Amino acid sequence: MGGFPSGQPTYRIRGGAATRIGTQLLGLVVTVLALGVRAPFAVVLVRHRHAKHTMLA
Prior knowledge:
This protein is mainly alpha-helical and 57 residues long. Helices cover 56% and strands 11% of the residues. Strands 1-2 form a two-stranded antiparallel sheet. The longest helix has 17 residues. The two termini are 19 Å apart.
């Protein structure tokens, strides 16, 4: 019948594509301007946005 097996959580991502793309671009710009030194900050920035907009349904 399709769908997810019972007991398995389903995830939904809230937020638009513009915020996702904007966050990715911001992380890229910060990394490039800092010559890669701030790359961990960019990773945290992107993952924080993802965690903030993920919702269990």
